[in-house]
Fold this protein.
Amino acid sequence: MISTLKRMVQAAAFAIVAASAGPALAAEPTGIWIDHTGRGAVEITKCGSQLCGSIVWLKDNQNHRQACGLKVIGEVKPVKGGVWDGGWIYDPEEDARYSVEITPVGANSLKIVGYLGSKLFSETMMWQRAPADLKRCDA
C-alpha cells in the first residue's frame, strides 16, 4: 500500500513538472514552409535562441530569382505555450516589415500572425510544411 502511494505521488510530481515545462516540450516551428499564397517557401531555422527564416523556393523562380535567400523572418523568441513572438516578418511584395507571432498547429501547419504595433491590427495566415523533395532555389 505504501509503495503504491509512493508511486502515485512520484507520478503526480512528474506530471506537474512536465506540465510546467510546456513550452520547452512544444515543437519548434523549424523546417521549410510553403507560405499562404503557395508562391514561395521559407526555411525557418534557429538563430541562437531565436528563429529566423529565408526564402528557399519560388514558384516563379525565373522572374523573382533575386528574392531567393532573402531573409524574411528574424528575432522571433519563444514566449509561452509553443508560441513564438517579438520578432519581425518582411513582405517583399509590399516592401514592408511587420511584427510577427508564429504558432505551430500540429506537425504540418503554422499560424503566422503579422501585426503592426497591436494584434488588433493583424493578418493571420496559415503556412503548410513543404514536401521533402521541394527543389530549393538556393541549391
